[in-house]
Amino acid sequence: MAIDKIGVVGCGLMGSGIAEVAAKAGCDVIVYEISDAAIEAGRARIENSLARGVKSGKLEESSRDEILGRIRYVSDYAPFADRDLVIEAVAENEEIKTAVFRSLDEALTSPHTIIASNTSSIPIMKLAMATRRPEKVVGLHFFNPVPVMKLVEIVRSLLTDDETAATTERFMTERLGKKVVKSQDRAGFIVNALLVPYQLAAIRMLESGFATAEDIDTGVTEGLAHPMGPLTLADLIGLDTILAVAESLYAEFKEQLYAPPPLLCRMVEAGLLGRKSGRGFFDYSK
Ligand SMILES: NC(=O)c1ccc[n+]([C@@H]2O[C@H](COP(=O)([O-])OP(=O)(O)OC[C@H]3O[C@@H](n4cnc5c(N)ncnc54)[C@H](O)[C@@H]3O)[C@@H](O)[C@H]2O)c1
Description:
binds nicotinamide-adenine-dinucleotide, globular, 8 strands
């Protein structure tokens, strides 16, 4: 089955990147957002990202206009009826995602439509069971920023059929040029099951007064040659997302290393979400 018509639900950090790469690959893209204001914010994210491409000389102005012309914005699910693949990228919250999957299941009229989630940590089976087509549901976990990062984790639930898995893998590698790794349907999949306990350890280190945020990150960038430290990376991902992923991992495995530290909980309650809110472990307001 060929995939040409894409739906993206949520046009935040990740959804905007997913819509951009799909439109760059020549797909017809419809983006869902909850309100006009959210549509405008999402549209601005995509336009700014493409403007950076033009400014750096990597993208022609005419190509940018063609890419933008392939993306439509909506705030109901009816236009998704004819989509080949719908990728959900709303907040990392099981209740919200389940409600989105239920709405999609009602709106999609074609039996061949594949529904994917970009969840970082929620088991795909939980989302698949909110639909009447669990065999067509798969996890497609992209990385941030989507136009730059090549990796995608493909996650099959126990009920995902072979055709759905093969079609999505072909689309990711051949059309979007992504590098695919496959994970069992376990909270956190491969990368976040490794990354998040490391970030939580850095937050506990800061919380206990063991070292400053600057020194923790410098230790990792200079000592391990990572491109950024764990706290800078947490700010980039969004502390609300890190907390949600930690909660899913803890709920799945009940292991202490996944338990969210109180400092992370307090920061999220305070709205200190990292780069997207202007302040997290570091200050981005200036
Ligand atoms: N941030 C990352 O680095 C990263 C990386 C990989 C995967 N993810 C996953 O991608 C998903 C989206 O994360 P994000 O960082 O783009 O979040 P975000 O907060 O930047 O964007 C979420 C968007 O979804 C929209 N939305 C659309 N329909 C919604 C609905 N019914 N209810 C609530 N919101 C709705 C919101 O308006 C918002 O714009 C999450 O599942 C997250 O775990 C995030």
